[in-house]
Structures are given as structure tokens and as C-alpha cells.
Amino acid sequence: MRFKDGDRVAVKAAHPPGHVRTPFYIRGKVGVIEHCCGMFPNPEELAYGRPGLPAIPNYRVRFKQKDVWPDYQGHQDDGICVEIYEHWLEPANQ
Amino acid sequence: MRSYHDLGGLPGAPLALAEHTYEPWEKRVDALLVMLIERGVISLDEHRRVHESLGDRAYAELKYYERWMAATANLLIMKGVISIAEIANKMIDVEARLAAGDDCAF
Description:
Oligomer: heterodimer
CATH class of the domain at 30-99 in chain B: Mainly Alpha
């Protein structure tokens, strides 16, 4: 696995064609790895009837709401967790 | 490009929070998909892909389980499990039985 709990990561700001499971609103945002959820066949491959192997890590990543929504009015420490596959994540500067 | 189904963060209408019961046909659509997945005929990820490819008009106008059914049918046609002619003939048959008062025709 490329990332460990507590690592800061940036979601790729990519918009490829085809079936992806990374929500649009979270692309390009920076968060922190909460934990690894396990290894799973790649859903982007499964969606086309392929085996999606080898399995890839999926991480629960915590973001601050104010980092996700520019106009967020709630508490500054409010968070949102999104489960994201490893190939959508890059290390982020501390 | 943002796909039309990827709605997170977009302005929308207020959520309808009331509970609702599922119609028998909706339960059958659900059961059919689960059975097809358990038998290995299709995968949930394939179904999601086709569901999200029905077009924005279908996405806006069809009920949730209507979209499930449309996606299931499309996928089974793509995989050669059923033919368009078979579905068409079955729909004619069901419509005739519904018109004759058979409320279990679906």
C-alpha cells in the first residue's frame, strides 16, 4: 500500500471518460488518510466485464468541509469522509 | 466532464424524507438483479455503468427502479442473454394481460 493512516493526500483532478467511482466534487481536494478499507478489484475494470485484478487498496479519506465547499458556513472542523481508490490519490505537501 | 448522475454538491430540490413502500414490481426488479449478479451473469459494477449511461433524460424522468430495469435489460442485450425481439414480444404479452385485468402480469 502506498499510503498509511494520517498521510495527507490529494485527489487527482482528473476527468477521464468511462466509469469512475470518485465523485466529481472531491477531485482536486486535499484530505487525510483515515484508514485503509481493504483490497478490492478495480471497479473501473469490473464495470466493463473485466476481472479488475490485481486488487487495489481503497482508503477512507477525511476532508474538511470548508476545504471541499468554498462557501461552507458550518463549523471549521466539520469533516466529510470519502472512500477512494489508491490510483486516484497522490501525496500532498504537509 | 461531469456526468449527469454525479450530483454531489449541485443545487437541488428539497429531499423527500418520508418513508415509502416498494411496489411489488420494484421488489421483483431488485430480486432479478441480485439473482443475475449471484449467478455471475452480470456484475454490480457493470450495472452501475449502464445505469449511469442511460442518458440525462432517462435519469431525470424514470423512477429509480425503472432505471434499474432499463439498465438490466440493456446489459442482458449487450451480453447476448436475451434479444430485443424477445423483450418486445414479452412486453406485448404483458401489456395484453394487464389490459385484461391480470394485475400479476408484470
